[in-house]
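User: My instructor asked us to take a sequence, write out its structure as tokens, and then describe one feature of it. I'm not sure where to start. Here is the sequence I was given:
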Amino acid sequence: MNIAMAGIDHRRASLQLRERFAFTKAEAVEALARLAEHPALEGAVLLSTCNRTELWLSCAEGASLDPAALLGALKGADPADIPFVVRRGRAAVDHLFALACGLRSRVFGEDQIIAQVKGALALARSCGSADGVLDRLFLSAVTAAKEVKTSVRLTAVDSSSASRAADLICRHFADLKGLPCLVIGNGEMGRLAASTLVSLGCRVEMTVRQYRSGEVKIPAGCRVIRYDERLQGLARCRALVSATASPHHTLRYEEAAPVLADGVERVLIDLAVPRDISSRLGALPGVTLYDIDDLEGGGEGEARRQEVARAEAILQAAADGFCDWCDFRPHLPAVREVAALVADDAAARLERPIAKLAAGPEAAAELERRARDACEKAAARLLYGLREELDRTLYRDCIEALRRSARPRGEGE
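Assistant: Let's start with the prediction itself. The structure tokens for your sequence are:
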């Protein structure tokens, strides 16, 4: 297991710095293509969310790469100037398992991070940069996170960023029934925000860049407007949530300030990284602007500490399983060779009895194939099970001894 990662997150890096290291999907594809050319890399995954950017590497045997230098190079930055956290081996594994179920999120216990971890792996797969180790690692982390979500209650309320945005709006407006709201962005976060506001009784408009019935998912109860009508929507609304993947502002100061000059109380919530809304708009009379760093996590207390302990036990067991898989991988060729040699020997011993029992040559060949396959699977199963009974060194020595003894006489190492 030669795994390494480097990253920044909301605990060590400002929003401005996180914006600098955010990757759009197109940028991530280009970055993974560049990394794929590195001779010492077996695999790479790039995780970029509102609260973090992390580069994950699977290095060739014996290679020692600096993931911080590689991540910095992707953005033209000197890693010495950036507060990257670097983790290797088991420390990196434990971090990803905790991250995937929301234990490392600004909004504690959030659900969206699972999809983001899964999406990072899917993108790496599509780019051909996810090797077997990172593929297994990320899938194991997602599976463990789902188990935590189904068996442990980390927070007392839904702790998605969209739900927190709705909580902020509730602080400003006593009555949400019929409150005019605008959601800019039709991605997953935008749809979650819109659905949450509709459920609270708000009158919600949502922007889409191009709308054709059946091609865009619109939450029930939302009115659709074109993206280029967002300023008109801003004039009508009292609360706005913007959550796009755009690298540019959706609300520029020069365009939005005249609309907001009427002095009407409005709450603007920016859930995007890079930010969607010009920070200068927050200084206008009547305007309150929140960004992703203003969202708060779940409450503290003994009950939550107990739930976290339960979650960590689940994650620890899953991480142990992944590490055991990594430890076993080097033995797979030997196990397969021994199983094949056992099957060859069994097939040779059964050749005459099968020929006597079979109705003809074709039937005999089919019986031999099935017998050989059964013997090979049975031998492999026994050898796999043996690793549960022996320590790692003894298991390795045992498999190597079986491989030598199973080979035909005269065949060298």
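For the description part of your assignment, you could build on this observation: The chain has a mean pLDDT of 87. Try explaining in your own words what that tells you about the chain.
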